[in-house]
Amino acid sequence: MTQMPIESIRDVRAHLAEVVERADRDDVPTVITRRGKEVAAVVSIEVLRKYQQWEEREINRIIDERMANRSAGTPIEDVMKETLARSE
């Protein structure tokens, strides 16, 4: 896997158009840090939409799985936590 650029929010402010162009044209995301901690990323809209579709499919898959196995029932909050944990 290719190393993603990592830049402070201060540096990104100085050349935001270039960071956005890199994400859009070259499909290279940039990780943004604040005080040395990774807090956000600039990705292409296509990558964001793919992630959202994947997340929705994954939630639906877990719901279908739970509905097929109707034991004691699982609160939706637990389903969401499990989905997010699987994506990490």
TrEMBL record:
<protein>
    <recommendedName>
        <fullName>Antitoxin</fullName>
    </recommendedName>
</protein>
<dbReference type="InterPro" id="IPR036165">
    <property type="entry name" value="YefM-like_sf"/>
</dbReference>
<comment type="function">
    <text>Antitoxin component of a type II toxin-antitoxin (TA) system.</text>
</comment>
<dbReference type="InterPro" id="IPR006442">
    <property type="entry name" value="Antitoxin_Phd/YefM"/>
</dbReference>
<comment type="similarity">
    <text>Belongs to the phD/YefM antitoxin family.</text>
</comment>
<dbReference type="Pfam" id="PF02604">
    <property type="entry name" value="PhdYeFM_antitox"/>
</dbReference>
